[in-house]
Amino acid sequence: MPDLNPIPTSRYYLEFNGLEEKMIASVGEFSFEGKTTGHEKPLASTKGGKTLWQSTSAGFTDNPDFSVETYIAEGDMDWYNWMKSTMPKSEGGEGKWKESRKDGTLTVYNSMDEVVMQWKITNAWVKSYSLSDLSADGSEFVKETFEIVCEDIQRTS
After folding, report:
1. Which residues pair with 104 in a beta bridge?
2. How far apart are CA 118 and CA 87, in angstroms?
3. Which residues, listed in sequence order, are joined to residue 145 by a DSSP beta bridge?
4. Which residues are within 8 A (CB) of 80 and not within 5 positions of it... i.e. 6 or more apart?
5. What is the pLDDT of residue 60?
């Protein structure tokens, strides 16, 4: 039986072009959902009354997306500024969506700090933003959450 070496979820590194060495609290689940066509109704009826069905892959329903929760460091507005650069001017942004999309990499390490998995993220941008709760009796660090959408995510190792 091969050695089983589970991979911890706490050892990872996420970077995008221009957003390196940031304090990432968590990276949400990547998800892909395939869509099919042809399965909604029978295709034909044949001899003996047999019904023919056809089901074919039709790609994915949406662009892949995931959430990134970051800790805020004093004076660091890089993630927020990236979001603003992709927003339309009519919404208070810079209106530079196309040229502000970024490529990135998510790397996962084992307990010996060796790279065991990696994903290439292509043409990503910020879809939504939220700030953690602030409370007079709170004891947590302030976090920003960014919902990232991209054109493609490919596992490379």
Report:
1. 16, 121
2. 29
3. 69, 130
4. 129, 144
5. 64
| pTM, to two decimals | 0.81
Q: Locate 89 and state its tokens.
A: 């001017």
Give Cα 35 to chain centroid, integer Å: 19
CA distance 125 to 150: 6
Residue 68 and residue 117: Cα distance in Å, rounded?
18
Token output for 122: 């292509």
**Within 13 Å and on the Cβ side, how many CA atoms surround 128?**
6
Q: Strand, helix or coil at 63?
A: coil
- In the chain, the DSSP E strands lie at 12-16, 24-27, 34-37, 44-45, 51-52, 56-60, 65-71, 102-109, 115-131, 143-149, 152-155
Q: In which residue are the tokens 């660090």 written?
A: 141
The burial of 100, by beta-carbon neighbours within 10 Å (0-12 exposed, 13-18 middle, 19 or more buried), is given as buried
Average pLDDT across each block of 10 residues of the chain; the chain has 157 residues. List them in order: 84 96 94 72 82 72 88 94 95 94 97 94 96 94 96 93
149 close to 121: Cβ distance less than 8 angstroms = no
Nearest of 107, 115, 119 to residue 152 by alpha carbon: 119
